[in-house]
Amino acid sequence: MSIVGTPALSAQQKPVAEPLVSIRELRVRYAPQDPFVLDGVDLDLFRGETVALLGSSGSGKSTLMKALTGFAPIHSGSVRAGDFDVAKLQRGQLRRLRSQTGQVFQQFNLVGRLSVLTNVLTGSLYGAGAPNMLGTFRSADRKRALELLDRVGIAHKANEPARSLSGGQQQRVAIARALMQNPRVILADEPVASLDPKMSRTVLELLQQIAREDQIPVLVSLHVLPLALAHSDRIVGLRHGEIVVSGHTADLTAEMLAPVYDIDEEEEDE
Ligand SMILES: Nc1ncnc2c1ncn2[C@@H]1O[C@H](COP(=O)(O)OP(=O)(O)OP(=O)(O)O)[C@@H](O)[C@H]1O
Ligand SMILES: [Mg+2]
């Protein structure tokens, strides 16, 4: 089954015209003899919405995110992100696509010995020319990095080495770094899997707030159902590479999401 999303905004809000990201009949496999890891996925992402991606380990969540940045081998179907037709991009265009895609990971991926501020500034290198690659950051970039640290609530840590921060604080730095790219979309692959429940909530609230305020889509993969129900506008459930549940979060319950988690098979195993 493949289900295309519908805009998450309510009637009082401005109607959204077109999806920013549009995936159709996407099939991905990593080798010709392998089974399809994504098998006919349709998904739209709209401005301002946070979409939670659920699925058991191996269901294809990370692969779907990789398909949006040209890192997954697309066998057939289409992936459109903004103006980019991802399956057809040459190297230079792929670089541009990636520079416009903010990514947040489970392990934060910061450089621990560098300051928080420098870590955020590296987000500006994506779109930078040669001078920035030499290690000097423009003062305008420094100002913006500090503003973003303020926005995520840790400006007071700007000069500390990143490794001295708590996990939740490091994830905020990673989000500020992603924002430094002026992203058109944010992909967050299990961003709270290493955080305690309280930190998880604050990080997910921050991502949802960014989606709304900056009017960009945020796609966030999660393993914890209650977190998805509390911190997303829509939920998409993957199972064995197919979307088995999709809907507005307000319309879904934990029971309705059960098919995502192979519950029948687990019960058979017991
Ligand atoms: N580079 C790769 N080469 C070959 N197979 C891969 C590769 N990456 C992923 N796979 C396979 O694709 C399937 C989906 O993997 P994927 O990482 O997308 O799942 P996931 O839903 O993100 O899982 P998890 O919750 O464990 O992160 C798995 O069977 C995995 O073994
Ligand atoms: Mg994964």
From TrEMBL:
Domain (ABC transporter) spans: 23-265
Q: Which UniProt keywords apply?
A: ATP-binding, Cell membrane, Membrane, Nucleotide-binding, Translocase, Transport
Q: Which domain of life is it from?
A: Bacteria
Which Gene3D superfamilies does the annotation name? Answer: P-loop containing nucleotide triphosphate hydrolases
Which GO MF terms does the UniProt record name?
A: ATP binding
Q: Which Pfam families match?
A: ABC_tran
Q: Which InterPro entries match?
A: AAA+_ATPase (IPR003593), ABC_transporter-like_ATP-bd (IPR003439), ABC_transporter-like_CS (IPR017871), ABC_transpr_PhnC (IPR012693), MetN_ABC_transporter-like (IPR050086), P-loop_NTPase (IPR027417)
Query: Does the record bear RNA-binding in its keywords?
Result: no
Q: What is this protein called?
A: Phosphate-import ATP-binding protein PhnC
Query: To which species is this protein native?
Result: Microbacterium nanhaiense
